[in-house]
Write a structure and sequence with these properties.
41% helix, Arc Repressor Mutant, subunit A, 16 strands, alpha/beta, Nucleotidyltransferase, domain 5, single chain, 20% strand, 5-stranded mixed sheet, 3 domains, 14 helices
């Protein structure tokens, strides 16, 4: 990949006049065209105009800029029969192996991180896990940057690299690129975006992983997700995100989504906060792994090991995973009642890999909810096991689709 600093895809949209009102209008029109092609492409210019309501002249201006910026490409075959006049050349996002831009994704987790390369349609082209023994090692950020640089060098095919999207748990402020608080990593007030950008020489954006997944669902997932969505993330860190009309809510200080201490009906699990029944203490991977070891199901507190044991027929592992799924469902019911979203997305390892556990979550949620009697509104992420690699890169790609002319940094 190459970093075309100063000439990145999307730097020129063809409709920027220098006037602020014109800039806003041009940015909105460019975003409309790009999103229309994302949702309906390949599509001819005349089709774009019909689908999005912009005039043919406005579509022509924007597609010219987006083609020049490398975000769109013309396909070699015209759509439909060729009549008299200009051929209806179809346009699509530039995802081709030659020249199509890509974004790097970095999901920082416990006890491993994941690197990825993702194209404009959200397809994960490459990924790699980077495990570590001590997530609180003060050298970890530098080690992650070094390993990520090696990953990018290994998969460098000459395609333009837009930058790096980073997703992680805890309290994250995208506007400043700062990790305000991540207890499991021991990070407080860390200027992660600036540190990684300096180490990699690339634009970097960071966000909370629950919001990142919500953003990916709204950008690439089912149409209903764009109307309204609640996302519940259950891993070593438990948090949530809410989005409406295609925008994820962050709240003052970007602190929205902390559901670690949401009460789980029926749970008596002791929490470090001094109460019992908190979601983090009841259903997190940390709690589940410890309980799996206590019951003698697995030798190490690893949820992937537990899921593997269930898949190979261990009834104890299956029983424990179903217990967790029902607890997650009871907590999900509370969020359903508060937000009543069109779609609720649950990222939880066993239910992402095996729908039977998702059915347990659905059944428990519908049984407890006062407003939701449709199990089908509760879904797993559309990307399946690639959810986090895709979501991390979407932290960088989503702002691009909102304003193709805006620099990817910041």
């Amino acid at each position: 990949m190459t970093d075309r600093t100063g000439d990145r895809p999307g730097d020129r949209t063809g409709d920027r006049t220098g006037d602020r009102t014109g800039d806003r209008r041009g940015a909105a029109n460019a975003a409309t065209v790009l999103r229309t092609v994302l949702e309906h492409g390949p599509v001819a210019r005349s089709g774009i105009s019909e689908l999005c309501g912009l005039s043919p002249a406005a579509v022509s201006r924007q597609t010219t800029g987006l083609l020049r910026g490398g975000l769109l490409r013309e396909l070699p075959e015209p759509t439909g029969p060729i009549a008299s006049g200009r051929p209806r050349i179809p346009l699509d996002l530039h995802t081709g192996a030659v020249g199509g831009p890509v974004a790097a994704g970095l999901h920082i987790g416990v006890p491993s991180s994941t690197f990825s390369l993702v194209d404009l349609r959200g397809e994960v082209l490459a990924r790699r896990a980077f495990p570590y023994r001590d997530p609180t090692d003060p050298r970890l950020p530098a080690r992650i940057a070094h390993e990520l640089a090696g990953f990018l060098a290994r998969f460098d095919t000459g395609r333009p690299l837009l930058g790096v999207g980073v997703a992680l748990g805890g309290w994250v402020r995208p506007d400043t690129g700062t990790v305000v608080r991540h207890p499991a990593l021991g990070w407080r007030g860390m200027p992660l975006a600036a540190d990684l950008s300096r180490a990699l020489g690339l634009p970097v954006r960071v966000d909370n992983h629950a919001r990142a997944v919500a953003g990916a669902e709204m950008l690439y997932g089912p149409p209903a997700a764009r109307r309204s969505l609640v996302h519940l993330f259950v891993g070593n860190v438990v948090d949530a995100a809410f989005g409406i009309e295609g925008t994820v809510h962050r709240g003052p200080g970007s602190a929205a989504g902390d559901v670690a201490h949401l009460p789980v009906p029926g749970s008596r699990a002791a929490c470090g906060c001094g109460r019992t029944g908190c979601l983090q203490a009841t259903a997190s991977d940390t709690a589940l792994g410890a309980e799996a070891v206590r019951r003698g199901i697995v030798p190490d507190p690893s949820v992937p090991l537990l899921v593997d044991a269930a898949a190979t027929g261990d009834p104890r592992a299956d029983r424990l995973l179903r217990e967790r799924a029902r607890a997650v469902g009871r907590a999900a019911a509370l969020l359903l009642d508060v937000f009543n979203p069109a779609v609720m997305v649950v990222t939880e390892l066993s239910s992402v890999l095996h729908e039977g556990y998702l059915d347990e979550i659905r059944a428990a949620a519908v049984e407890r909810s006062h407003v939701c009697d449709e199990p089908g509104r509760i879904i797993s992420p559309h990307a399946g096991p690639a959810v986090l690699p895709q979501a991390a890169a979407t932290v960088l790609l989503d702002p691009l689709f909102r304003d193709p002319g805006r620099p990817t940094a910041g």
